[in-house]
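Reopening this one. Same input as before:
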Amino acid sequence: MRHAFGASFDVPTGYLNTPSIGIPPTLTTDAVRESVTRWGAGADHPADFDEHVRRARAAFAKLVGVDADNVAAGASGSQLAGIVAASVPDGSRVLVARGEFTSLTFPFAAQAHRGVKVTEVELADIPSEVDGHDLVAVSVVQSANGAEVDLAALREAATGTRVLLDATQAVGWMPLDLAWADWVVAAAYKWMLCPRGAAWLAVRPDALDELVVHSANWYAGEDPWQSIYGLPLRLARNARRLDLSPVWLAQVGATASLEYLSTLDLAEVRAHSVRLTDALLAELDLPGTGSAIVSLELNDEQARRLSEAGVRSASRAGRTRLGFHLYNNAEDVDLVVRTLKR
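Same output, byte for byte:
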C-alpha cells in the first residue's frame, strides 16, 4: 500500500500504465464496493444516484475551470466528441494533430459524407495553421508521447475558429483553466482515477446551441423524473441537455476520485510527476520533456525485460509509453533504470 497526497493506493511498484488505466485511491474502491453491496441487496432506487452525478459533474467542472451548469455527463470521450462532430455544418474544415488519438479524430472523419474535411498537421504547427479552418480538435496532452499543445498560442490564434480540446490525458495531473475553449471533453478512467464509464463535455454557453442533441433521452430533461414518458420534447436549458442516462457505479467512483483530486494543489501534482519522468530520462541520458508521460524507443529485449521485472507500461506508436502519477515514486524510476541498464 502506498500513501501519497493524503490518500492510500493499492498500487504495486512498477505500475506506470496510468495513461491506459489509472489506479483509484482506496476511498474510491471502498465507495464502489459499498455501492455494489447495496445493489446486491436491492437497497437503492435509481434517483439515489442523482446526487453522485451532480457531485461528480461539479468536481470535474472545478478541475477544468468551468461552471458546473456548462458540463454534460456521458459515458466515453468518443461519444461526447461525436456530438460535436455530428453537429458541425456540412463542408466544415477541421484541423487536427498528426497521430492524434482516434477517439477524437474518427468522429470527424466519419462525417466525410457531408463534405467535412479533416486536415492533419504536426502538433507544434496547430496554432499557426488555424487560419482557413472552422474547427480545431486537439488533445491538451498527446496520448502517444505526452507532448502538449501550446494552449496559449492556440487560444490567441483561434479567434473566430471553434476549438474542441480533449483533456483526457491532462485532467488529474496538471492544473487547467480551459473555460475559453468552445468544448472540452475528457474520459475519467485514466488520470482522474475513476471507473470506466464516465466522461464529461464542458460547453461554452455560446457554443451550446450549435450542438444537435443526437442522444436526447429522459435523463437530459429539465426535470429528468418528469420527462420519462410522452412528448413534447422538454430538454434541460443548459449543457445537461446533452447528458446520457448515467452509468451508476461509474458515477459513484467518479464522485469519490474527483472530489479527492479537486482538493489537491495540481501544480504540486504536476511537479511531482514531471520530477519523476525527468529523473528517469536523465538516468537514460535523454532530455527532459516536462510531461508526466514518457515515450521510450526500446527494442523487443528491453521491453520484455521491463515486463518481466514487473513494470506495467503500454506499447503506443511503436514505442514504450510510461506514465508517472501522484502515486508513483522514486522506486518506480529505479526499477526501470536498473532493468534497462542491466
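So the earlier flakiness isn't reproducible anymore. For the record, Residues 46-261 form a domain with the Aspartate Aminotransferase; domain 2 fold (CATH 3.40.640.10).
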